Amino acid sequence: MRALLILNDAAGSLNGDRDAASPAEVVAAFAAAGLPVGLRPGPPAQLTATFRAAVQERPEVIFVGGGDGTISTAAGCLVDTPIALGVLPLGTLNHFARDLGLPTPWRDAIPALVGGSTRTIDVGEINGRVFINNCSLGSYPEAVRRRDALRRAHGSGKWAAMALASIAVFRRLRRLRVRIESPSGHLALRTPFVFIGNNAYSGHVLGPNLRPQLDAGQLWIYTTRAHRRLALLRLAWQSLVRQIDAADALDAHPVRETVITSEGPRELPLAVDGELVESARTLRCRVRPRALHVRIPTAPARA
Fold first, then answer.
1. How far apart are CA 157 and CA 150, in angstroms?
2. DSSP letter assigned to residue 83
3. How far apart are the C-alpha atoms of 23 and 175, rounded to whole Å?
4. C-alpha closest to that of 15 among 165, 158, 154, 166
5. pLDDT 10s per residue in the chain (303 long)?
6. Fewer CB atoms inside 10 Å of the end CB: C or N, the chain?
């Protein structure tokens, strides 16, 4: 199997955030697992160009080390090609790696990837951009915007800045006015958030994974009509102690495609796979069934 390896130089585990890894150590770990890989540099500002150049080399698999934002960028370059994406979990949360059943310590993930198999899974697409996990409108992207501003201004740590930003957003909670249209009908509502998942989010937030299936061919739209702070706190608590889609105040709508339009004065703030992207008044979303080849372990990791 001919394989390339691309590491995001800014990934948490490459900068000592968790189980620190150096490029040389990662390459050596692949060799020890029986698969030599060709390392390609991955400067953060040039990741898309790096992935596209790697695709032109036509390997059987491209292993990508980084967080979900990096993996999402790679997926956008590999979708609808025969090249498999191998996810090396070097980010902070590694949601996608967990949903693939991978162990999150990178030293354990490498033999699982090398000894595993290839399967196809769905991706979502929003305004032409591929996503692997989800898109969020409303309160979450606003919190991410505030978090990034705090980090630039004060050099705050990621988690501390996010906690402060979330409190600020919660104290001044705003509701979006949106219209959600799909072939099955339309919905107009005011809500603090709209969450669009690539397949159903049915796990526990604190569990080993959030999505039991990645190839059901559906997007799931999650919203709430709750707007009082106490009701939203109860929703947040239930999402921790129950399966996510069992929370009382959460509305879930499965679709294959949808158009979401702002009916308020503002464009819709948007985060895609945890990364802020340009706001828009109209969002066109669709699922692309089994469009991405991925490496998975033979036996999924256990909690």
1. 9
2. P
3. 45
4. 158
5. 899 999 987 665 555 555 667 899 999 999 999 999 999 988 888 899 999 999 999 999 999 999 899 999 999 999 999 999 999 999 888 999 999 999 999 999 999 999 999 999 999 999 999 999 999 998 888 888 888 888 888 777 777 887 887 777 777 778 889 999 998 888 888 888 899 999 999 876 666 788 989 999 999 999 987 777 676 667 666 666 667 666 777 888 999 999 999 998 888 889 999 898 888 899 999 999 999 999 999 876 654
6. C
Q: Which of 98, 87, 282 is nearest to 181 (CA)?
A: 282
d(CA 59, CA 96): 22
User: Which residues are within 8 A (CB) of 203 and not within 5 positions of it... i.e. 6 or more apart?
Assistant: 209, 210, 211, 212, 243, 244
Angle made by CA atoms 53, 59, 61, in degrees to the nearest 5: 105
**Which domains, from first to last, does the chain contain?**
3-115 (3.40.50.10330), 134-287 (2.60.200.40)
Mapping DSSP to helix (H, G, I), strand (E, B) and coil, where does residue 302 land? coil
Residues 215 and 167: their CA atoms lie apart, in Å, by: 36
